[in-house]
Amino acid sequence: MTFSNESLLLNLISIGDEKAFGKLYDFYRPSIYRFICKFIKSTDLSNDICQEVFMKIWEDRWAIREINSFRSYVFTVTKNHTFNVLKRVAVEDRLKGEVLSSYSRSRNDTEETLLAKEYQQFLQKVLDTLPPQSRAVFKLCRQQEKSYEEAAQILGVSSSAIKKHMVKSMKVIKVAVEKDMDIAFSVFMPLLLQSADSLPVG
């Protein structure tokens, strides 16, 4: 199924008509999303890819008037982009971290307790090496889930100072993780966030 006036719509889009593009987006998005979901078993990632596909089409809108069948075009763009994402994420540490995190949640209570304790001890050891102000910022932002603005008010500093402390702290933790634990930081990150929540906030 296509628009009866799709050719006109494509011409309008090619000259930057956002309203025309919105109509095309609303019409094709559901089927594009379903297509992506066949390959990507994640609703969040599928939504992201769907948005990226339409962003790419909008960015290349100057050439859209030359397209005979927009349906064929959009599905070709979607297929290529989806497969490229699959190739990329197959080797990304982020996905490895998600797998590791899911695996840890499937362990029995004893194993989970031991694993959590191990990461808590390691993280606390690294935090103890930080300057007092950086340690205080990390605890407020990560463990107490304060925003940068809230932490800034509590400590009497600027939000930009809070951000600088967090960036430095995360760099220190990243180096320690990859050196001492011999794993990628992005693999450790999901477990770090789980462990940090249960650290003492003294």
TrEMBL record:
<dbReference type="GO" id="GO:0016987">
    <property type="term" value="F:sigma factor activity"/>
</dbReference>
<feature type="domain" description="RNA polymerase sigma-70 region 2">
    <location>
        <begin position="24"/>
        <end position="86"/>
    </location>
</feature>
<dbReference type="InterPro" id="IPR039425">
    <property type="entry name" value="RNA_pol_sigma-70-like"/>
</dbReference>
<keyword id="KW-0804">Transcription</keyword>
<protein>
    <submittedName>
        <fullName>RNA polymerase sigma-70 factor</fullName>
    </submittedName>
</protein>
<feature type="domain" description="RNA polymerase sigma factor 70 region 4 type 2">
    <location>
        <begin position="123"/>
        <end position="171"/>
    </location>
</feature>
<dbReference type="Pfam" id="PF04542">
    <property type="entry name" value="Sigma70_r2"/>
</dbReference>
<keyword id="KW-0731">Sigma factor</keyword>
<dbReference type="InterPro" id="IPR007627">
    <property type="entry name" value="RNA_pol_sigma70_r2"/>
</dbReference>
<dbReference type="InterPro" id="IPR014327">
    <property type="entry name" value="RNA_pol_sigma70_bacteroid"/>
</dbReference>
<dbReference type="InterPro" id="IPR013249">
    <property type="entry name" value="RNA_pol_sigma70_r4_t2"/>
</dbReference>
<dbReference type="InterPro" id="IPR036388">
    <property type="entry name" value="WH-like_DNA-bd_sf"/>
</dbReference>
<dbReference type="InterPro" id="IPR013324">
    <property type="entry name" value="RNA_pol_sigma_r3/r4-like"/>
</dbReference>
<dbReference type="GO" id="GO:0003677">
    <property type="term" value="F:DNA binding"/>
</dbReference>
<dbReference type="InterPro" id="IPR013325">
    <property type="entry name" value="RNA_pol_sigma_r2"/>
</dbReference>
<dbReference type="InterPro" id="IPR014284">
    <property type="entry name" value="RNA_pol_sigma-70_dom"/>
</dbReference>
<dbReference type="Pfam" id="PF08281">
    <property type="entry name" value="Sigma70_r4_2"/>
</dbReference>
<comment type="similarity">
    <text>Belongs to the sigma-70 factor family. ECF subfamily.</text>
</comment>
<keyword id="KW-0805">Transcription regulation</keyword>
<dbReference type="GO" id="GO:0006352">
    <property type="term" value="P:DNA-templated transcription initiation"/>
</dbReference>
